[in-house]
Design a protein that fits this description.
There is one protein chain. The chain is an alpha+beta fold and 64 residues long. Helix content is 42%, strand content 16%. The protein contains 3 helices and 3 strands, in the order βααββα. Strands 1-3-2 form a 3-stranded antiparallel beta sheet. The longest helix has 10 residues, at 49-58.
């Protein structure tokens, strides 16, 4: 992942997909199954970067 400090705190799904490396459709599946939260800012759906980081950390495998 790129330097986290360069990314904004709130990401639209397209940007969140680029940030995490997950597909946009998979992110929408995670949102609809309430695995990750989404928020509305006007008409836009946004995701919080720190929540995406936490989701990605849950899948982290420990080095042997």
């Amino acid at each position: 992942m790129a330097n986290v400090d360069l990314w904004p705190e709130w990401l639209r799904p397209k940007d969140a997909a680029h940030y995490t490396g997950l597909s946009r459709s998979y992110l929408y599946q995670l949102i609809s199954s309430q695995v990750i939260s989404s928020y509305k800012r006007g008409r836009a759906t946004v995701l919080k970067r720190t929540e995406l980081d936490a989701y990605m950390e849950k899948g982290k495998k420990e080095a042997i």
